[in-house]
Amino acid sequence: MSFEIPETLTSSPEREALALGLEQVFFSPLEEDERQRQASDAMIPPLRAFALLDASQSPDIPIYLEGFSDPVRCLFDGAANDDMAEVAPWLVELTRYSDAWDWFVEEGYGQNWGILVHSRLELPRLKTHLKKFLKIEDEDGERYFFKYYRPEHFNRYAPGFDDTQRAAFWRGIEAVYAESKGDMAMLLRHGLYGGGKHRRQKFDVSEAGKSLMTGKADLNDNPSALTRG
């Protein structure tokens, strides 16, 4: 089964710039990683791109993801998948020109659908890793379902992880990108410093896209020009 996404008859320059900047900010690190891997003798797995999306935010998410050719997995298995796939978290592997990426940018970005991930893990292993954090326990021993994959939640809670939580979550993950609530032009990149402390960077993807449209900047040559903070 496949789907064709209707093309927008007209696209505003602002939306076009945002889409172009988002694509460049998110995929340029993968291309740089590939160049470095080709120039090195080290046997390092390639850096991969993923989206982790919350199907409870839109009924279209599982329908479209299962219709695309892009590799995809639901984080729920067994009976939970049978009963709750329509509201479950879904993990899809992305490439710069994939159908899933184009669809996410057009329909889901800015809607609190989910987070973007860079990892060297392959899809099945990353799914297993991410499943570990779906439930958390409070100080009284009560367990709760934790939708950390919603951008507003990740932006709020990830910087506050303690040392143990950071070590567990970031094992196998190099970066998480999340849209900023109330300002879809601002993309937040979360990761770790060399010492293991949380690092957050801000990317103005709208300005990045405008610069690329006018030929004034190339993220591969000068990525710091597109960041804030």
TrEMBL record:
Protein name, per record: DUF4123 domain-containing protein
Pfam families in the record: DUF4123 (PF13503)
Domain DUF4123 intervals: 50-167
InterPro entries registered for this protein in UniProt: DUF4123 (IPR025391)
Superkingdom field: Bacteria
